[in-house]
Amino acid sequence: MVINPQKLLSLQSSTRYVYVNPISISLATSNFLLHSCSLHSNQSTVNYNDIQTVYNIICTSTNTNDMKKSLKSTQIFLSNDLIDSVLKKARFSHSNPRITLDFFNLTAQRRGFFHTSYSVDTMLYILGRNRRFREIWEVLGEIKKKDQSLITPRTVMVVLGRVAKICSVKFTVEMFKKFRRIVPVFGTECYNGLLRTLCQEKSMIDARNVYHSLKHEFKPDLQTFNILLSGWKSPEEAESFFGEMQGLGVKPDVVSYNCLIDVFCKGREVEKAFKVVDKMREEDIAPDVISYTSLIGGLGLVGQPDKARDLLKGMQEYGCYPDVAAYNAVIRNYCIAKRLGEAYKLLDEMEGKGLDPNATTYNVILRSLYWTFDLRSSWNLYDRMRRTGCMPNTQSCMFLIRLIKREEKVELALELWDDMVEKGFGSYTLVSDVLFDLLCDWGKLVEAERCFLQMVEKGQKPSNTSFRRIKVLMELTNKHDALQNLSAKMASFGTSVQVSLDKRPLKA
């Protein structure tokens, strides 16, 4: 049975600045950003329990034969959608790369089966994150033999993104050139991917030097300049590069102008940013919500949150309606100005206009509450998130758990943890370190053991530090059987632990 590969990705990028980085939204729509991918295959046909079952088999298998037998015994059909979902889970759970690769290779051996482009790129990302570059080229070699069309410019960016994070610019460029032999269409799109990687992982100087060294081999296009414009931090350098772009006959679009507006705003040259907006209108290029969001952020940086709010209201006069990111920028401005009352009013206004606040919206306020040690207001805000169906992220959880530990509210800590386990949000590893510290401080060994086992059931490895703290308490209370069980769980992650086998009661 031949599976028709699905090749859709959603690309996002994290904000790098003190206020919302709207340019990343535009670039994401152009397939530039690769570091956070989410699956768009038809997951409605994939049963979550099947995903978890297959994932657990991967985590607990000691060799490929055991994995093959266990998978066969489940009688679960390993469709492309299921494999995509399992690999995605393995990626975000930081699972063992060797075992994950065994699963990838095992499923690829079926007659007439082809992995999707998403599966290939996800597997390469996992290997790259673990610096397994030899295995990367082995996978690429097999894919080239079987279906070379799965090796896309996106694949190039996935691999280069991991290489550039730990290797030199020279090595990254050499790796890029090596792809020439295996990528069916190796052109400007791949060149743009290299530049984007260098902008993210290295420096603008490195990206600029590589741009100049390779621009005669790959004809720069509008996307090339937009990538490089998005990375400039100096307004002077951005203006100079903008001039080079126009000199080569490449006409700027709204993304190009938004990059220029953004760099002016980050440089606190807000007046110049407003002049760029005027120029856009002269050229019949309508500023969009990203243009205004940059201006709002810039006004916040120069201490004018009220003017930014006026701009938010005035957008509609130009037929541009604020989105969640625009509201987030205004809310952030008021939080920076320590005017939380105005921030809460904007939160209410968003909901009144049918806009759903996201985790970033709440985190902006949670950050301010965190620095004032206001646990009550923070927990009330968390309650609001739960009521409105907004899923907290890791940052939300860390603000809360650290405040909870400071106030020593064990019950709240366990309530937050249970929500995380039930609904699957936040980083178990980061939150559990703080949680186990609190539980051990208060001698809540039963609760610590329960949370430890819940974490393991989710395929997450508790830190060695947390394990050692729990281990000491179990030894002191003679819970040797429970300790042996936890030690075995840790060993399943490849962690070497030593447990005393002396079960005699400790003397006082």
TrEMBL record:
Entry-linked InterPro entries: PPR_rpt (IPR002885), TPR-like_helical_dom_sf (IPR011990)
UniProt superkingdom: Eukaryota
Keyword entries, A-Z: Repeat
Record-linked PROSITE patterns: PPR (PS51375)
The PPR repeat ranges on this chain: 253-287, 288-322, 323-357, 358-392
Key word Repeat present: yes
Any single Pfam family the record assigns to this protein: PPR
Similarity field: Belongs to the PPR family. P subfamily.
Protein's recorded name: Pentacotripeptide-repeat region of PRORP domain-containing protein
